[in-house]
Design goal:
Subcellular location: Endoplasmic reticulum membrane
Radius of gyration: 20 Å
Enzyme class: oxidoreductase
CATH topology of the largest domain: FAD/NAD(P)-binding domain
Shape: globular
Membrane topology: Single-pass membrane protein
CATH architecture of the largest domain: 3-Layer(bba) Sandwich
Organism: Ceratotherium simum simum (Southern white rhinoceros)
Order of helices and strands: EEHEEHHHEHEEEEEH
InterPro entries: FAD/NAD-bd_sf, Flavin_mOase, Flavin_mOase-like, Flavin_mOase_1, FMO-like
Number of helices: 6
CATH class of the largest domain: Alpha Beta
Length: 230
């Protein structure tokens, strides 16, 4: 990337699409940050290229009859069913359901992984941006030149900006990497309490990716932590 003479940033530095108006932009990564950025930038950019190594199953926040997806799927009844249905069958049902909305293979997004084996990517408006040509799916970047990106399929695209939506590394430097607090995997009981501590005096909130929204889940974690502390 250091050969590239244009602008390149990580998704955490992105604030507003306005300064990218009229640019040719490559977004690298198709997690939630990558999908959201590609959709938003496509409204102002000359062209957006969305680069993905392995494709993704694209979920919609709006489910049948206009209901929020998480309220429809996250029910006690479905939880019980999932305990009895074999994983391969749940995968097949889920993949057929998402492909019924838009064919992932035709759009160049068919993943190498199954429906349940990787994190969820939401992108309600992504099919619209793809079918209009405002976002173009590309494979992994093989190399950068001074003015372009060369992708693994041999195609080359001139670029003004590269946005790396390549994820985050969790770090707790204020804990001094103390194994008595957190192990090397940063594992927490119920994603909240470090199990190595002698007493439950530390709670970590929001380090999870639920099926639905993070904020109400974090709210419940916070209520539980307060009760434990009290």
């Amino acid at each position: 990337i250091k050969r590239f003479k244009g602008q390149y940033i990580h998704s955490r530095e992105y604030k507003s699409p306005e300064k990218f108006r009229g640019k040719k932009i490559a977004v690298v990564g198709i997690g939630n940050s990558g999908a959201d950025l590609a959709i938003e930038l496509s409204h102002v950019a000359a062209q957006v290229f969305l680069s993905t190594r392995r494709g993704a199953w694209i979920w919609s926040r709006v489910w049948d009859y206009g209901m929020p997806m998480d309220t429809v799927l996250s029910t006690r009844f479905n939880t019980v069913l999932n305990k009895f249905y074999p994983t391969f069958l749940i995968n097949r049902l889920g993949e057929n359901r998402l492909n019924a909305r838009f064919n992932h293979d035709i759009y160049g997004l068919l993943p190498q992984h199954s429906f349940l084996s990787h994190q969820v990517t939401f992108g309600d408006d992504l099919p619209n941006r793809l079918i209009s040509g405002r976002v173009l799916i590309k494979p992994n970047v093989r190399e950068f030149t001074e003015t372009s990106a060369i992708f693994e399929d041999g195609t080359e695209e001139d670029l003004d900006v590269v946005v790396f939506a390549t994820g985050y590394t969790f770090s707790f430097p204020f804990l001094e990497n103390d194994s008595a607090v957190l192990d090397s995997q940063c594992s927490m009981f119920k994603f909240v309490f470090p199990p190595q501590l002698e007493k439950p005096t530390l709670a970590i909130i929001g380090i999870l990716q639920p099926l639905g929204a993070t904020i109400p889940t974090s709210e419940l974690q916070s209520r539980w932590a307060v009760r434990v502390f009290r």
